[in-house]
Write a structure and sequence with these properties.
alpha/beta, Rossmann fold, N-(1-d-carboxylethyl)-l-norvaline Dehydrogenase, domain 2, 2 domains, about 55% helix, about 15% strand, binds nicotinamide-adenine-dinucleotide
Length: about 300
Amino acid sequence: MESIGFIGIGKMGRWMAEHLLNAGYCLTVYDTNQDATNDLQEKGALIAPSIFDLGKENKVVITMLPNSKIVESVVTGEDGLLSSMNPGGLIIDMSSSYVFLTKTLAEKLANTGLTLIDAPVSGGVKGAKAGTLTIMVGAKREYYEKALPILRCMGENIMLVGETGSGHALKAINNYLSAASLYATTEAMILAKKLGIDLSVALEAINHSSGRSFSTQFKFPTFIVPRSFNSGFSLDLLLKDVKMVTSIAKDSKVPIFLASTVEQVYEAASITGEEDQDHTEIIKFLEKITNKSLIESKELECEQQV
Ligand code: NAD
C-alpha cells in the first residue's frame, strides 16, 4: 500500500495517524517532540529523523501543526518538504491554517511540481480518536479525489468546499461560531446563576428550547459542569481561529462586529489565565470578572466525592 508521511503528532495528529496505520498505509511520522511519536512507533510507524528524510521517502505528506507559520517553515524552510519531496508529490495540510498564507504557499509550490491542498478538520480529539472527523477540503477536484481514500480513514463527513484555501477559510469561520456560542452560553449561565437558577435546570430547559447549541448540549455537561476542562483543544488555538476570522473579514472588507468582541474576550482570558488552558476554561475568566462562580464550592465538593 501507498506510503504516507505525517508531521505533527499532537493531540489530534496522534489519533489521525493511527487510523492510517490501521488502514494498512506504510506510515512515517515526525514531530519535534520525540516523545510524541513513541506510541505510534510501537504500533508499527516509522520515525523519520528529519522532515527532509520524511519528504524524500513519501509522495503524500500530511501536516497537522499548530499554525500557518509552522506549516510554512516545514514546507519551505531549510531542508523542508520543498527541498526533499519529488515532483508530483502531494501535501495535505490538515491543520487549521490561515487561508491567505495557504494560497500563497500553494502558488509557490505549483511551479515546483508539488501540490498543496487544505483539509482542516472539526470534531475534536473525540472525533479524531473515533475516526469521525468532519473534513473541509480546499482543492481542485482531481487532487480532492486523490486525497479522498486517505481522508476517509480519518473522517466521516468529507466535503470539497472550493478551491485551495477554502477549507481553511471555512474551518476558521466554523470555529468563530463555536467560540461565539461558547462565550455567549458562558455569559448566559452566569446570569442564570446570579438569578438563582440552578445550572442543571437551566441547561435542561435550554436544551429543550431554541437557545440550545453544541455548547449547551455537549461542552457544558461534558467539560464545564464537572470542571474537567479536558476537551483537548486549547484556548490559544481557538483564539488563533477567531483572530484569523477578524483578519479575513478585514481583508475582505466585510464588517464582523461580534467577532471583534469575541476575539477580545478570548484574548483577555488567554493573557490572564494559565498557560496551555483548555478553551472551555473561558468560564474561569468570566467567573473572575463577575466574582461569581458558576458552581458553588459546596456543589463542587459533592460532585468530587461522587
Ligand atoms: P498540538 O499542539 O497538540 O499538536 C501539534 C504538534 O505539532 C505537537 O506535537 C508539536 O510538537 C508538533 N510540532 C510543532 N512544531 C513542529 C514542527 N516544526 N515540526 C514538527 N512538529 C511540530 O495541537 P492539536 O490540538 O493536535 O492541533 C493541531 C492542529 O489542529 C491545530 O492547527 C489546531 O488548531 C487544529 N485542530 C485542533 C483540534 C483539537 O480539538 N485539538 C480540533 C480541530 C482542529
